[in-house]
Specification:
Elements (H helix, E strand, L loop, with lengths): L2 H14 L7 H6 L4 H29 L10 H20 L2 H14 L8 H23 L15 H4 L5 H27 L12 H33 L12 H35 L6 H14 L15 H29 L8 H24 L1 H7 L3 H31 L5 H27 L14 H31 L43
Helix pairs in contact: 3-4, 3-5, 3-6, 3-17, 4-6, 5-8, 5-9, 5-10, 5-15, 6-8, 8-9, 9-10, 9-11, 10-12, 10-13, 10-15, 11-12, 12-13, 13-15, 13-16, 15-16, 16-17
Length: 540
Amino acid sequence: MNYMQKEHAANEANYLTYKGKYKGFLGWIFSTDHKRIGLLYLYSIMTMFSVGVLLGLAMKFELLAPGKTIMEAQTYNATFTVHGVIMIFMVVVPGLPAVFGNFLLPIMIGAKDVSFPKLNLLSWWLYILGVILVLSAIIFGNGAPDTGWTFYAPYSFKTGTNLLPAIFGAFILGFSSILTGLNFLVTIHRMRCPGMKWSKLPLFVWTLYGTAWIQLLATPVIGITLVLVALERLFGVGIFDPALGGDPILYQHLFWIYSHPAVYIMILPAMGAISEIIPTFSQKQIFGYKAIIASTMAIAFVGYLVWGHHMFTAGMSGTAQYYFSLLTFIVAIPSAIKVFNWISTMYKGSINVQTPLYWAASFIFVFLVGGLSGLLLGSLAANVHVHDTAFVVAHFHYIVFGGTGFAFFASIHYWFPKMFGRMYDKGWANAGWLIFFIGFLALYSPMFYLGMMGMPRRYYDYMDEFHGGNILSTFGSWILVTGFLIIIINLIRSARKGPKAEMDPWHGKTLEWTVTSPPSLENFDEIPVIAEDDGPYNYK
């Protein structure tokens, strides 16, 4: 065994058998090590993602044919509500920041941990508490909530279902997000290693920075709004109830003032991960480093100003509609800049085709489809036609699931060797990607057609003319779940028994590839120093 192999084995042993105040399972759930917290988030989020996938699969079984298939209408309403709450609040919003941000951010900036390790652990505990509260709403009381994941008024205070635990769970999940964002902001500002200037930060760190500001500034709005809904249910305070002088449209404004920036909480870290993967497997420097940074911050800023395009049919002045429509088109420009830069990076690159690159390339494709369909929804005349139809469901899933989800799987396949110190089976990984990608296209693409033809979303039943599209969509869900099972089984097996990974199997250029796999307890024996003449991605 050579020196590097011995060092790798020693580091893996130190990392996996580290004993703090507690041992075993308690040693994990009470650990303040940012890497262990990142892995706790990974296991928690993937568990909830699996639950959300099963609920989505049940919905597609129900829509396989007109009329009742496997559940009643009320059960269907509860299923899509819980599916939405799980996927948005427990999977997509925390996903990349909580898992890969926690694990990699300190290493990528040359730090030994985040600024507030105990606060970091608290954010995971709050996440688990929020999950427990939401799941308790399904098990106890008068049945699972049936309002949709948006908790729209007046449904949210008129329904007799068990809504309050779900609302409080979402409220606590918001606090978890705020603490994570605060921790990342302070860490990036105060703990960069010597020589790590802002102009040398990895692009994934830049996107976490933009996301952290959104988490910090936008999330309190949804927290306050959910508290007001709870007060409405408990005490009838008359804020959203029109019978008491309230305004249900006010709820929509407050909800989307948060929830549209939340889309960028979901997608910005995804864009950052793709901006790391493409240069690595193109074996080139990223094209337009500064342009990507500028577009990242532009998305974070303009994202606060476009919430009204969710409400074109709810009732607002023509002037407001025009401005919101214009801003929606403007926010597409920085996203297009990123796509141009990614493709330009690959142009004439020495492409090393690996599983993460397959995921990254498919991310660009589905993100383009989702973005272009979003422009149609931002157009006033077209929006009136397809609002609240299956077209919106297709667009939403192309952006949120196709965008964030594909980037998540790209990230786990990219950083898996660093996180677990082992390699996965590339043949099975590629097969899982291909089956998942085909299933995704077959599942959601027919919904564009169904929406254009007028099929409403969230409906338990439909007319016979929509039958063909729903059959194809349901078959697509089966294909997608098959791909997902292949991916998960391959990763779980590889984490336990896969071949040992090299320190830098992909020839990456950022600091995480300069430490052992998996990293030691404090990441670095000595804090690295970035030379003055080093550019971004030239630290090694």
